[in-house]
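quick q for whoever's on today - can somebody do inverse folding on this one?? i tried earlier but teh output was garbage lol. tokens:
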């Protein structure tokens, strides 16, 4: 087992009818002037917005509507200006991963004196040193952002999607209410299942390290998602199914799965570029890249692919056959959820995409990715070409 340090201070309040706990937790965190940040309006339609306002009568509440899917830097900067003008001391993020990630950025950018994009651009000496505290009310189980300290921010005019994070960006609390799943479009539920599944695979499909507990925990999430995935898309109002999806998604990226094991994350990093270029939903970019990446990196991942094929898909044959069949089973699972796995399924404008993405990684100097640092720019080009 590899050495590790584990830290996760986020308080999770899980279940339905818990909103009256919000004012208590806000007061515990010293909140007086609260920015209520949300997306394009799903929370108004569902009634959640009004329910929250009813709970927040003791606070000075400043609403900020409009954080879009793949949160945009320019939108978030408007919220930064508003927070400064209103002396906001706490932010409540109400939404999916995009709103929560957007709020992580806002919370770091408000006290930052320079151009916050420099921090995401990893310009030398540019770091967020302080952050406004924030909490979340999760409406879409997918990213795990409600229980981690990372965020991904989009800047369309530069065709860039950048990651940020650090210990200051753990939410103080997150309300995870499975009844929120009932209003989600099928497309977003399928996205959530695939994102959680892929977070687990990124921390599991590497090489064996003898961390038996972590492997079994990852397998528990994978097996649960395989069992409930298609059912929850058909019956999102089923509280038990929705609860299991929500808890799986939180667990898949709350930091536990990476304890003592190598991790990959190259599928995510390549996938982010597909979103930056084409606006393809995050989870769908993962479904496009992962099967091709596993084929390209087959030798290094074969032992874990075989274990995965046996334990999750009950596959039989030689170890090599099982490993190949496990990749096919994964792709078939994505298809069964209604998720296409080719770039050409999403855009006709794919000519040269493999060289464009290769150039991005070369420019950033990200030339050794994956658990063995074996994914170099020529591999990236080949993986993307195979995914067209
Ligand atoms: O904006 P509204 O009107 O709220 O609509 C949203 C949005 O259109 C809608 N929605 C959310 N909850 C709903 C709902 N509609 C009806 N009922 C509800 N209960 O769903 C749409 C998509 O929302 P979004 O937040 O974009 O989805 P998701 O949670 O999948 O987040 C994706 C973003 O998270 C990043 C991705 O890159 C992407 O930008 N990620 C963040 C990570 C992290 N911080 O740890 C890790 C992930 O790998 C990922 O990269
Ligand atoms: Zn993801």
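ok took a stab at it. sequence:
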């Amino acid at each position: 087992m590899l050495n590790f340090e584990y830290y996760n201070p986020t308080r999770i309040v899980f279940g339905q009818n818990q909103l009256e706990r919000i004012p208590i937790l806000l007061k515990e965190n010293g909140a007086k002037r609260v920015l209520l940040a949300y997306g394009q309006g799903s929370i108004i339609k569902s009634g959640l917005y009004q329910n929250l306002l009813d709970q927040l009568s003791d606070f000075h509440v400043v609403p900020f509507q409009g954080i879009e899917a793949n949160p945009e830097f320019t939108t978030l900067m408007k919220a930064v200006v508003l927070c400064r003008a209103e002396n906001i001391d706490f932010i409540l993020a109400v939404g999916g991963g995009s709103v929560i990630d957007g709020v992580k950025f806002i919370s770091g950018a408000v006290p930052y004196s320079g151009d916050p994009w420099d921090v995401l651009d990893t310009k030398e000496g540019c770091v967020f040193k302080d952050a406004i505290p924030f909490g979340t009310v999760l409406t879409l189980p997918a990213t795990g952002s409600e229980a981690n300290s990372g965020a991904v921010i989009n800047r369309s005019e530069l065709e860039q999607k950048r990651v940020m994070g650090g210990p200051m960006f753990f939410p103080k609390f997150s309300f995870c209410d499975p009844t929120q799943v009932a209003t989600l479009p099928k497309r977003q539920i399928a996205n959530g299942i695939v994102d959680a599944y892929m977070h687990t695979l990124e921390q599991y499909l590497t090489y064996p390290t003898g961390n038996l507990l972590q492997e079994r925990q990852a397998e528990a999430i994978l097996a649960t998602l395989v069992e409930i995935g298609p059912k929850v898309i058909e019956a999102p109002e089923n509280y038990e199914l929705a609860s299991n999806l929500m808890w799986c998604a939180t667990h898949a990226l709350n930091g536990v799965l990476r304890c003592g094991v190598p991790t990959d994350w190259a599928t995510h990093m390549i996938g982010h570029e597909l979103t930056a270029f084409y606006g393809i939903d995050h989870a769908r970019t993962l479904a496009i890249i992962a099967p091709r990446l596993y084929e390209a990196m087959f030798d290094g991942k074969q032992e874990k692919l075989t274990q995965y094929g046996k334990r999750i898909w009950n596959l039989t044959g030689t170890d090599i056959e099982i490993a190949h069949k496990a990749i096919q089973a994964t792709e078939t699972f994505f298809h069964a959820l209604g998720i296409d796995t080719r770039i050409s399924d999403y855009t006709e404008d794919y000519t040269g995409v493999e060289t464009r993405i290769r150039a991005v990684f070369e420019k950033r100097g990200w030339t050794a990715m994956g658990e063995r640092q074996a994914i170099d720019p020529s591999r990236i080009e080949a993986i993307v070409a195979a995914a067209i």
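fwiw Residues 39-43, 46, 69-70, 95-99, 101, 139-140, 142-145, 148, 150-152, 180, 183-184, 188, 191, 195, 253, 268, 282 surround 5,6-dihydroxy-NADP (ligand 1) (CB under 6 Å). also The longest helix spans residues 212-234. so keep that in mind when u check it
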